[in-house]
Amino acid sequence: xxxxxxxxxxxxxxxxxxxxxxxxxxxxxxxxxxxxxxxxxxxxxxxxxxxxxxxxxxxxxxxxxxxxxxxxxxxxxxxxxxxxxxxxxxxxxxxxxxxxxxxxxxxxxxxxxxxxxxxxxxxxxxxxxxxxxxxxxxxxxxxxxxxxxxxxxxxxxxxxxxxxxxxxxxxxxxxxxxxxxxxxxxxxxxxxxxxxxxxxxxxxxxxxxxxxxxxxxxxxxxxxxxxxxxxxxxxxxxxxxxxxxxxxxxxxxxxxxxxxxxxxxxxxxxxxxxxxxxxxxxxxxxxxxxxxxxxxxxxxxxxxxxxxxxxxxxxxxxxxxxxxxxxxxxxxxxxxxxxxxxxxxxxxxxxxxxxxxxxxxxxxxxxxxxxxxxxxxxxxxxxxxxxxxxxxxxxxx
Amino acid sequence: xxxxxxxxxxxxxxxxxxxxxxxxxxxxxxxxxxxxxxxxxxxxxxxxxxxxxxxxxxxxxxxxxxxxxxxxxxxxxxxxxxxxxxxxxxxxxxxxxxxxxxxxxxxxxxxxxxxxxxxxxxxxxxxxxxxxxxxxxxxxxxxxxxxxxxxxxxxxxxxxxxxxxxx
Lengths: 397, 167
Fold this sequence. Notes:
The complex is a heterodimer of chains A (397) and B (167).
Chain A: H1 10-29, H2 34-38, H3 47-69, H4 74-81, E1 85-86, H5 87-104, H6 108-116, H7 120-138, H8 140-147, E2 151-153, H9 164-192, H10 202-224, E3 242-246, H11 248-257, E4 262-266, H12 270-275, E5 282-283, H13 286-289, E6 303-307, H14 317-320, E7 325-329, H15 332-341, H16 353-370
Parallel strand pairs in A: 3-7, 4-5, 4-6, 6-7
Antiparallel strand pairs in A: 1-2
Chain B: H1 8-26, H2 33-47, H3 49-54, H4 56-63, H5 70-88, H6 104-125, H7 129-138, H8 142-159, H9 163-166
Helix pairs in contact in B: 2-5, 7-8
């Protein structure tokens, strides 16, 4: 479950470091102290609101920005990072969690930081969270129908039709308004309270003004990203599958090396498919495709590869509902037959290293698919080969 | 000498950057309550494995490796980060944080029972203030925003009734 980062240990280290940063900042904000957290609910110290909303708008504008540049797809990232929407559990569970928050003085994350700051009440809260989670799971069966009530699938605020950058700017504006209000409320409570919180020092106020200015510019930045081209086409709600073509070369490598990462469906008529098909492919003629229930398959399954008679223009509806990658094999069955079932053209002595490699792969593939003995390798070049850098602009270098 | 806390907006910007780094490097947000659940299941499994096996949810958690999950590493990191910050700021101290009128006994009972409510609620909501409100809120998830507003509503609704605990 921990990202592998190409089989190295980096995933562990990065996870640990990000956790470290998380705990470090929470402690620096004063969240290891129940009295400071609880003061939020008595309007005396609005630090919880300020820290939380500033963090949300910062990360949000960052995510919108990298999406608009085209580095990531916001919806894809989000579907991997958040849960689906369940209206009633979110509402009732959130209300209960808020009550637990004011009773214990911590939320689950801050109770861990409180514990590591030496606070016994934090430790008690951690124990409570563990016990509560176990008790809920004990009664999970009784809760099952409520647990999934109001299920809406993945819903994001930008599914309302308002573009994400505009929404981000609106949320920044809302947060900014909330901060101004929070400052006013704190000042008012200081004037009224018998044991007031200390007045912020002038240096603190200056820092606040700078930070608030930064937050405002984030909103402007979010709006500004609208002017960017927006990178790759975006996935939309109710469009779970990203359909993309897969080349014969990429497909054949994956078929030979990692066949378990794909589910290959042959959409040709049953007789043609029964006669000859890609190894491991299922015969799923168009009319039988919807019986496979591809839409009901859980997310995170293997990639779906669809093979038509020739090149497929688009994925059929029954496959588009699949929650994962969907690929259309380039050239379809005809393309595959020409690529893998026909012996490759012999190479000439001047062939480039790329051509040699491609030839070797196709010869291997051909012998594996047809049972024919692989052709002998082409004669070694007589001249010493010096690889040349490929020039831009084409032509024979 | 105990140092003062960071300016809340500055802390918020840094917290947001940590969260953004988590999205981009790990593909998920921050989290806490999931670690508590997993530690609980792992502990219960050593004490009463038959009982855990009888509960489908716990059994599937154990089958997938109760402790083999990023959230435990993250929670460990958060504990270390909190410790480092508290220690270097002169704030590390074994003590019980409580309101001016709260007794030690009620404070600890409240801490435990509030924690239990949150532990159960976080299972229902599929995440707590870290995993839902913060991480999902920044990605504009509807679930997370409903959750976040409900958390504030729940806190404010009960605050007046238990004000003797805190003010």
